[in-house]
Design brief:
Number of helices: 16
Order of helices and strands: HHEHHEEEEHHHHHEHEHEEHHEHHH
Bound molecules: zinc ion
Number of domains: 2
Structural class: alpha+beta
Largest sheet: 5 strands, mixed
Shape: globular
């Protein structure tokens, strides 16, 4: 190969490389997200608004990592975060959102009650697209009718882009200093703090106390009827739907009435060592919470729900009579457990706690329980 040919090849290679780079620069062709210093901008903006980000006063809530390709900011975010001596377990809650959610950050300052909410856009250009600072101290907002009306207006105007309830309740709950970190971990999945998720936390503790999760013991949850509580079980026990740990379905009001004691779900405890499977049927009564929390009937939801959360956060209240009730504990076998999982079966009917018409509690009528009639009437009549 002579020098001329090598030279020609080299020029060809340079030309090709230049072509590849220039193609990459054409808008729409580049898939790499430009993440240059966007997180530094976000932190600086919050710092300017709040007058500083102090480890003892700050909670950052964000959905970073959930919106599409937002993971590219993770390293820069944590570098900014740790530069300010913030701690993962003390100053941060990374909530799960859907992939098409905006990327947002809420910086809450406990000392002032101020919260700076920031949304960013990213892609070809990265920038702060929305920013607002509001005082969200619950005591001040709920002080009187005027303050309540003022915040209601901001909720209606979606001042935090629809995340007012989530940010207000999580921030104020955290500010009490009594937030159980394991509850916070559930809120990461659930992405807001509500009495429903709090009730799941209470029920989870009840189960762990009464049927300890020891070696060889596992739970299968029939969250029926379903409400926000399920996400606690998924997080705490790894009872994911994909692994068959949780089965979720609803009940009609008549079915709830027939079962009685405000049914919350059926917690099946499989103990491999003992060779037993027990269906623990529990009720959870929100009337007890509402009677005790101090909420008034005309309070808006953000007031009554936060007051219920506060009451449910206090472990001293967990033994309140009627809050959690045992509807039934039934020994079952593998075949019954499999029947309970089937799409056309109501697990309460399978257990004999509800007749297939859904409106009579068989135990009250002396109808025999499991197995005798459980699977004979399909589909279940809706009433
Ligand atoms: Zn909820």
């Amino acid at each position: 190969m002579n020098i001329k040919r090598i030279k020609a090849k080299f020029i060809y290679l340079v030309f090709l490389t230049a072509l590849v780079f220039s193609l990459g620069a054409i808008p729409g062709m580049a898939h790499e997200v430009n993440n240059s210093e966007l997180m530094a901008q976000v932190f600086a903006a919050a710092e300017a608004e709040l007058g500083g980000i102090e480890p003892e006063n700050t909670l950052i809530i964000t959905d970073l990592g959930s919106p599409a390709e937002s993971y590219v900011f993770l390293d820069e975010f944590y570098s900014e975060f740790y530069e300010r001596d913030l701690l993962y377990t003390k100053n941060l809650l990374v909530v799960q959102n859907s992939r098409n959610s905006p990327l947002w950050f809420a910086f809450f300052d406990k000392s002032s009650g101020n919260c700076t909410y920031i949304e960013v856009s990213y892609g070809n250009e990265s920038e702060i697209s929305y920013q607002v600072t509001e005082n969200i101290a619950f005591d001040a907002l709920s002080k009187n009718q005027e303050s309540i009306a003022a915040w209601n207006e901001k909720v209606n105007a979606k001042v935090f882009d629809g995340r007012e309830f989530a940010i207000l309740t999580i921030s104020n709950g955290w500010a009490t200093g009594k937030f159980d970190y394991e509850l916070m971990q559930c809120l990461e999945l659930h992405n807001h703090f509500c009495p429903g998720v709090s009730s799941g936390f209470v029920l989870a503790h009840w189960m762990e106390e009464n049927y300890p999760l020891e070696e060889g013991v596992s739970y299968t949850v029939f969250s029926c009827p379903n409400w926000c509580k399920e996400d606690v079980f998924v997080k705490r026990w790894d009872t994911t739907p994909g692994k068959g740990g949780i089965w979720v379905s609803s009940l009609t009001d008549n079915e709830k009435e027939a079962i009685g004691n405000s049914p919350a779900g059926i917690f099946v405890v499989t103990d491999k060592n003992a060779g037993t499977i027990k269906a623990v049927v529990l009720g959870f009564d929100f009337n007890v919470v509402n009677a005790e929390s101090g909420a008034k009937t005309d309070d808006p939801a953000w007031v009554s729900k936060y007051l219920a959360d506060l009451w449910l956060m206090d472990q001293d209240n967990w033994d309140k009579e009627g809050l959690v009730s045992v509807i039934s504990v039934i020994d079952i076998d593998e075949a019954t457990l499999n029947e309970m999982k089937r799409a056309d079966n109501n697990p309460y009917v399978v257990l004999g706690l509800l007749n297939p018409a859904g409106n009579v509690n068989p135990s009250k009528n002396g109808i025999p329980g499991i197995g005798n009639w459980a699977n004979k009437f399909k589909p279940m009549q809706k009433v």
